[in-house]
Design goal:
Elements (H helix, E strand, L loop, with lengths): L1 H12 L7 H6 L27 H20 L3 E4 L2 E4 L5 E2 L8 H5 L6 H8 L9 E5 L5 H4 L8 H6 L4 H13 L7 E5 L8 H11 L3 E5 L1 H8 L5 H4 L4 E5 L3 E8 L2 H6 L3 H15 L5
Parallel strand pairs: 3-7, 4-5, 4-6, 6-8
Antiparallel strand pairs: 1-2, 7-8
Helix pairs in contact: 1-3
Length: 282
């Protein structure tokens, strides 16, 4: 793995030779994009496709490897051929309370019990692959009149008004995720910060990725003050003491995507990154 790390790092310093005439001629222009595979989104969420670039994926993979290597070596400096890589220490969440069941976990959560039942029933460790984290959720009184007979839409309605919820449900399905593979929770209650509850939930469910929706959720989970425009679609490794590492991926809030059609293209690019990470795309 060390040899591969060095090889990929050197590869970034020496970009590959263009493979086509068009790429050689137009690659550095703002309007050129390489040929794309057919769009895989359903017609109800049709947006311009743009493949997740190999270079971006490589950079994020190297970052994750660098953090893991630094932890293994107990050093923030990794020696590579021709130089050094300095790794910035990551924020870490404290060890959560030990719980043995979902019912025990619920006792430490602040949401309305009816919302908790809607959001968490049927969610199991090893099955939930993505924990979506949003901002303040709706009251049960707002949600209950809009509930459908069944389906993922009912969980999504807890966090978003009907029109936004329908869009976000389509986004989840476009990512090839099932209702059993996702869970939602807010970072903010009516008068309380719920971020620790988010991490307690993550510690119990052990999702492969925590996807934050909007600036508030992103900064709360990352324990930082980042501009969402600068970090969306990137992977950040965060750890929970005594539990392990999680990949945190910020996305724009669905309400922004709903009101700004140009954001759909950006959202799809970010969603494809998560799909590749989850092996939902080749």
């Amino acid at each position: 793995m060390d040899a591969l790390f060095k090889q990929k790092l050197l590869g970034l310093r020496h970009p590959p030779i263009p493979t086509t005439f068009a790429e050689a001629l137009f690659k550095d222009t703002s309007w050129y994009s390489p040929p794309k595979e057919p769009d895989t989104l359903p017609p109800s969420f049709k947006i311009p496709g743009e493949n997740f670039t190999e270079k971006a994926h490589l950079i994020e993979s190297l970052e994750r490897f660098a953090h893991e290597k630094a932890e293994e070596l107990k050093s923030s400096i990794i020696e590579v051929e021709g130089g050094e890589v300095h790794v910035v220490p990551k924020a870490k969440w404290n060890k959560p309370p030990l719980v043995k069941s979902l019912e025990e976990l619920k006792k430490g959560l602040s949401l309305d019990p009816k919302l908790l039942q809607l959001l968490l029933d049927g969610k199991e460790p090893g099955t939930v692959r993505v924990l979506f984290v949003s901002e303040r959720f709706r009251r049960w009184e707002e949600v209950s009149p809009e509930l459908k007979a069944s389906g993922l839409i009912n969980e999504v309605l807890a966090g978003f008004p009907l029109k936004t919820a329908e869009l976000f449900e389509r986004m989840i399905k476009a990512m090839k995720l099932t209702a059993e593979e996702v869970c939602l929770y807010p970072v903010e209650g009516e008068d309380k910060d719920l971020t620790k509850e988010v991490m307690n939930l993550a510690a119990y469910l052990r999702p492969e990725a925590i996807v934050t929706l909007g600036a508030k959720a992103t900064n709360s989970v990352l324990m930082s003050q980042e501009r969402l425009a600068m970090v969306h679609g990137q992977f950040f490794s965060r750890s929970i003491e005594g539990v392990g590492h999680f990949q945190v991926v910020p996305l724009f809030h669905p309400s922004i995507i709903e009101t700004n059609q140009n954001m759909k293209k950006t959202a799809w690019v970010d969603m494809q990154k998560i799909m590749k990470f989850l092996k939902k795309l080749p």
